[in-house]
Specification:
Elements lengths: L1 E7 L8 E10 L17 E11 L6 H16 L7
Length: about 80
């Protein structure tokens, strides 16, 4: 499951910016080498990347393609790398 998390940085007016985090939800982190107790199902949120955009603008299709490539690269790794 992936979703963008959007937040505003408290500023108002035309200089506002939106900060977006693109994440992957790992429901079975222990199955892909992320560690933790075997008895408890661990849900881990992995931040793939972040982007900033001016208020009332859109990201380009190339931006979203880059995010998808990073997510695919992450999911191909077993064990998964986390920093």
């Amino acid at each position: 499951m992936r979703w963008p998390a959007t937040t505003r940085c408290g500023s108002t007016g035309p200089q506002r910016k939106h900060f977006r985090l693109f994440c992957v939800l790992e429901r079975h982190g222990t199955d892909v080498g992320l560690g933790g107790p075997a008895i408890i199902i661990i849900i881990i949120i992995i931040i793939i990347t972040g982007m900033v955009k001016p208020f009332r603008t859109e990201f380009k299709a190339t931006d979203y393609r880059r995010v998808r490539r990073l997510g695919e690269e992450y999911r191909k790794r077993t064990p998964r790398s986390v920093a």
